[in-house]
Amino acid sequence: MGPKKLHLASISALSIFLYVFAHTNSAQAFPVADGTYPPEAEGPAAESSVMDEQLELTPGPQPRVVDVDDYRARADAGDHTEAFLQAWKEACNSSDYPSVLLVPEGKTYLLMPVSFNGPCRATTITATIRGTLEAPSNRSVWLDLDLQEWITFDNIDHLRVLGGGTLNGNGHQWWINSCKTNRSMRCVTGPTALYFRRCNHLVVEGLQIRDSMQMHVVIAYSWRVLVSRLLITAPGWSPNTDGIHVSNSREVLMSGCIISTGDDCISIVTGSMFIRATGIFCGPGHGISIGSLGANKSWAHVSDVLVEKATLVGTTNGVRIKTWQGGDGHAERITFQDITMHNVTNPVIIDQNYCDSMTPCHEQGSAVAINNIRYRNIRGTSSSKVAINFVCSNSVHCDGIVMQDVSLVGEGSYVSCSYMNARVVELGYNFPYCRAEM
After folding, report:
1. What is the pLDDT of residues 52-61, one digit of tens each?
2. How far is residue 143's CA from residue 35's CA, in Å, rounded to a whole number?
């Protein structure tokens, strides 16, 4: 494809990006500096976004297009990692203009663990992935070098990863050798398929990511991120295969993604603030989770999160907040709203006594504080008798839980609300009913 067509494609992708944000106002999306909300808002606004800067399409130089096939030996049918690294180096550093790294469609490329590093001279850099990237299926590639990531983008501003192509993690050997599926195996952390670290003003859009060894997509230490229209799939039995994992990042918008894996569809952990997930389909998997937080007596903080317009089907959890005993910190100002659930085992759950360990977790005198949590307009069916379950710490109670127009019914049986050490306020019509007491 020539530079002119790629330039038009890039403009088209940017137009979608502009449309998403042109109808929003970040002043409504999140609290102002003192932590309060605008008078008309009770939480992160449903029709707002994380980015407030105005982008304009202005005439400028056409981007330089760097095709990975130009760096690939004609007879090379094996490892293509070096060709990708050479193409990245050229796209990243060749000019002070926009650049495009092109992975052509209709082709499959084998990539060993690889890191695309910045900073780049290019004002913006777009990785257009239209082909298929395959991870090696041999676990020793990672284990011999103690690596935990397959494809990494590190320290790159104004990066766009677009395409319609596929990333195949070939994770089956990792899953069958996991200590969670085979207790005789040693517990080893598997690699993440696609890892973004220290990437500000990041757009990730239109990719299919499947069968990761462990997590599929990680956003870490990044600011102003848009993740949209991803199709993330792995078998429901595959362990630890989170769809999108957000850590230590601010102003992240996840929109219009379909996620079917063996673990959390979305997990949001410590250091994350001003996070919005909208239009998410989840199932199978473990639902949408804040946490886990506070493991190994650590300090954790997550705040100003909005999860809305989600559909969950056949998941083991619906919307969940999970923290370890013995931790410290806060999970606060979190809203779950406009959510539909079908045959979900634990539709609404807070667990301050979370324990994902082969040895028992003993009661501790501290916990991550959970407060100002709102559930609004959540409807559907529960496959368990306890549809709403708040298990809060004896030492640090859950405070400021608001249930508004939550209606959950059983799959042929009566459902209930169970809670311990939680202060719950109910507004509107709610079923099952949770009495407001400690």
Report:
1. 433 344 456 7
2. 45
The answer to whether residue 114 scores a pLDDT higher than 50 is yes
pTM of the complete model = 0.86
Identify whether the C-beta of residue 209 lies closer than 8 Å to the C-beta of residue 230.
yes
- Judging by beta carbons within 10 Å of its beta carbon (0-12, 13-18, 19+), is residue 356 exposed, middle or buried? exposed
Sheet of 386-391, strands arranged across:
114-117, 149-154, 192-197, 217-220, 244-247, 266-268, 288-293, 317-324, 346-354, 386-391, 416-420
User: Which of 287, 286, 285 is CA-nearest to residue 277?
Assistant: 287
Q: Where are the alpha helices (DSSP H) in 113-235?
A: 140-143, 172-176
Q: What tokens were used for 240?
A: 């630890």
- Residue pair 232/254 in contact (Cβ under 8 Å)? The answer is no
CA-to-CA dists, residue 412 to 130, 143, 341, 429, angstroms: 46, 48, 15, 21
Q: How far apart are CA 121 and CA 125, in angstroms?
A: 9
Predicted confidence band of residue 435 (pLDDT cuts 50, 70, 90)? low
Query: What pLDDT is recorded for position 52?
Result: 40
DSSP 8-state class, residue 46: T
- Measured between alpha carbons, how far is 142 from 273 in angstroms, rounded to an integer? 32
For residue 94, name the pLDDT band (cuts at 50, 70, 90). Answer: confident
Q: In whole angstroms, what is the distance from residue 252 CA to residue 28 CA?
A: 15
Whole-number Å distance between alpha carbons of 159 and 44: 26
What are the angstrom distances between the C-alpha of 264 and each of 52, 252, 300, 358? 29, 17, 19, 20
pLDDT band at 40 (very low <50, low <70, confident <90, very high): very low
Cα 13 from Cα 34, distance rounded (Å) = 36
Point out the residues that are catalytic.
286
Q: Hey, what domains does the chain have and what are their CATH numbers?
A: 65-256 (2.160.20.10), 264-437 (2.160.20.10)
| CA 279 and chain centroid, separation | 13
